């Protein structure tokens, strides 16, 4: 397999995404930069928490080569959280975006980034590389952050999205939510309002599925009708692009979602 040959990781495999087979069958993947060991331990995520290896300077070029050989028209770049690095890995993201631009100039590039501890220079570094879509997932409601994302912060993530909008006003800004972690529909509506106020124009909403028994349990399963209702609430708040459904994940069908963004982006 090309990804193994190039020594690359995908979040599709590491996070045990339920859409893995569908995406791989269409020759698409979300590249996970900076190794497969995360410095954080989130209650919903199956990516391993361990001391990471140093960044691989050759990885951005190998990602670009893989994207070219796969003939990808839309490339999603994400990464583990790297709190051990001064810039949280932002320069590595920027290098990967530029490498893909050189090797696959016709492709769109989306970055799905960690919060970089809320540091503006890191965000500026990534945005300076010119991705087509800036994505940072809020994931859950404020009340559940201490249990679900104990090393993150709701206000920090929201501020990151707002900064991205302010720094590049024409940039497509995206975020995502999981449901089923114990939140209420009113809490979800409040988060959607916060995201829209921060300048997010693409929102994804999907069902949380417990990766293993060691992770946060599922508190409820939302029906397809329930996801339809959440989509209507999001659109009523002014989101031009909403992708809501049981198996929706932030980078699933990212190219198709991108095509629904108003032409200004």
Low-confidence stretches: 17-21, 23-27
Number of helices: 11
Domain tally = 1
Through-space gap between termini: 35 Å
Largest sheet, strands/sense/barrel? 8 strands, mixed
Determine the fraction of residues in helical runs and give it as a percent range. Answer: 25-40%
Number of strands: 10
Q: Report the CATH C-level class.
A: Alpha Beta
Q: Could you state the CATH homologous superfamily? A: Aldolase class I
Spatial strand order of the main sheet: 1-2-5-6-7-8-9-10
Question: How much of the residues is beta strand, in percent?
Answer: 15-25%
Fill in the CATH topology: TIM Barrel
What is the gyration radius calculated from CA atoms?
Answer: 17 Å
Quick tags:
about 260 residues, alpha/beta, TIM Barrel, two-stranded parallel ribbon, 10 strands, about 35% helix
Structural commentary:
The strands form 2 sheets. An 8-stranded mixed sheet has the order 1-2-5-6-7-8-9-10. Strands 3-4 form a two-stranded parallel sheet. The chain is globular, with a radius of gyration of 17 Å. Helix 4 (59-70) packs parallel to helix 5, helix 5 packs parallel to helix 6 (120-128) and helix 6 packs across helix 8. Helix content is 37%, strand content 16%. It is built from 11 helices and 10 strands. It has a single domain (2-258), classed as TIM Barrel (Alpha-Beta Barrel). By secondary structure, it is an alpha/beta fold. The model is unreliable at 17-21 and 23-27 (pLDDT under 50). Helix 5 (90-103) links the parallel strand 5 and strand 6. It has helices at residues 2-5, 11-14, 20-25, 59-70, 90-103, 120-128, 145-148, 154-167, 185-197, 224-236, 254-258; strands at 9-10, 30-33, 37-38, 48-49, 74-79, 108-112, 133-135, 172-179, 202-207, 241-245.
């Amino acid at each position: 397999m090309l990804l193994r040959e190039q020594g690359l990781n995908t979040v599709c495999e590491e996070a045990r995404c339920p859409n893995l087979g569908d995406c791989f069958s269409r020759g698409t993947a979300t590249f996970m930069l900076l190794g497969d060991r995360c410095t954080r331990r989130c209650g919903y995520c199956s990516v391993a928490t361990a001391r990471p290896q140093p960044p691989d300077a050759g990885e951005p070029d190998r990602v670009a080569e893989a994207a070219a050989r796969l003939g990808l028209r839309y490339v999603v770049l994400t990464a583990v959280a790297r709190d051990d690095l001064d810039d949280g890995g932002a320069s590595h993201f920027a290098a990967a975006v530029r490498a893909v631009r050189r090797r696959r100039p016709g492709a769109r590039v989306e970055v799905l980034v960690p919060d970089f501890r809320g540091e503006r220079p890191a965000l500026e570094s990534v945005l300076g590389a010119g991705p087509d879509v800036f994505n940072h997932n809020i994931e859950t409601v404020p009340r559940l952050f201490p249990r679900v994302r104990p090393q993150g912060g709701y206000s920090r993530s929201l501020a990151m999205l707002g900064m991205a909008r302010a720094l590049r006003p024409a940039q497509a800004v995206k975020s995502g939510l999981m449901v089923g972690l114990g939140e209420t529909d009113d809490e979800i509506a409040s988060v959607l309002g916060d995201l829209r106020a921060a300048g997010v124009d693409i929102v994804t909403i999907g069902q949380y599925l417990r990766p293993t028994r060691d992770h946060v349990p599922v508190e409820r399963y939302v029906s397809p009708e329930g996801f339809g209702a959440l989509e209507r609430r999001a659109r009523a708040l002014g989101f031009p692009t909403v992708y809501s459904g049981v198996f929706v994940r932030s980078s699933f069908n990212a190219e198709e979602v991108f095509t629904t963004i108003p032409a200004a982006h």
